[in-house]
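Weekly sync, protein design subgroup
Attendees: M.S., D.O., the rotation student, P.L. (late)

Item 1: inverse folding check
M.S. brought a backbone from last month's batch and wanted to see whether the design step gives back something sensible before we order anything. D.O. pointed out we never logged the input encoding, so this time it goes straight into the notes. Structure tokens as presented (255 positions):
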């Protein structure tokens, strides 16, 4: 478990997402119903799921956040099937800002985000859209430009029918490293080499994406982190790949 109290630094952005005034600095790409029952942001597709990718959307916070941060988001799934995703460190390619009018248009279709004019991380933290996703629950971290699956971990969030409370999602980005936890339980870790999957990503925007007919609700907080790094050596050496004298690769577990 991660002690979040030791990670939390100065608050950069704290938003309860409890009313329309709280999303004044947000921008919607695609079409969605945005409401605030019970004082929580609720997102739901406005187009029929029969339209496929055209029914999906992204809800961006237009602020530019620093390269290193600790993001905390409360989330609860209300209806499935569907998928919930978080974009972060998102910026326009070629040094442009995310909302530069010279970038190719975006309307919620996924290809516009992984093979369009932006670079970003994509964290799918609740995946229940396709049958294989519902059979085996994982959190996926992808990096673009491109469709690079760079890390994967188990998803501990229950299905919507059993999710009777909000779950705390914690995302730490520091330098080349990304860590993700649910209710303090770390489920995903990635260290970027800045070469294999493109340049290291720096400052950028944060966005929420859902796949129809998913309904979910959430709140959002972004902080600096205070430099605390629990179990760093353990995480980095838990699984490693080695070649023996015959060139055969072996996976080794250890601490």
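Designed sequence read out in the meeting:
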């Amino acid at each position: 478990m991660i002690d979040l109290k030791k990670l939390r630094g100065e608050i950069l952005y704290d938003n309860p997402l409890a009313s329309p005034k709280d999303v004044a600095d947000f921008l919607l790409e695609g079409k969605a119903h945005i409401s605030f029952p019970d004082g929580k942001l609720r997102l739901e597709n406005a187009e029929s799921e029969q339209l496929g990718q055209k029914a999906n959307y992204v809800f961006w916070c237009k602020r530019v956040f620093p390269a290193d941060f600790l993001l905390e988001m409360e989330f609860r799934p209300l209806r499935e099937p569907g998928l919930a995703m978080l974009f972060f460190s998102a910026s326009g390619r070629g040094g442009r800002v995310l909302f530069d009018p010279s970038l190719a248009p975006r309307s919620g279709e996924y290809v516009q985000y992984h093979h369009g004019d932006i670079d970003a991380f994509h964290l799918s933290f609740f995946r229940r859209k396709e049958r294989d996703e519902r059979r085996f629950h994982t959190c996926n971290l992808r990096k673009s430009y491109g469709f690079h699956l760079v890390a994967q971990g188990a998803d501990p969030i229950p299905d919507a029918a059993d999710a009777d409370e909000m779950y705390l999602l914690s995302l730490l980005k520091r330098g080349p490293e990304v860590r993700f936890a649910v209710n303090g339980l770390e489920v995903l870790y990635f260290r970027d080499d800045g070469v294999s999957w493109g340049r290291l990503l720096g400052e950028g925007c944060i966005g929420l994406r859902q796949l129809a007919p998913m309904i979910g609700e959430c709140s959002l907080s972004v902080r600096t982190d205070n430099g605390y790094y629990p179990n760093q050596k353990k995480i980095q050496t838990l699984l490693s790949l080695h070649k023996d004298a015959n060139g055969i690769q072996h996976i080794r577990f250890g601490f």
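Discussion: The chain has one domain: 4-229. The domain at 4-229 is CATH 2.60.120.200 (Jelly Rolls).
Action: P.L. to compare against the previous round before Friday.
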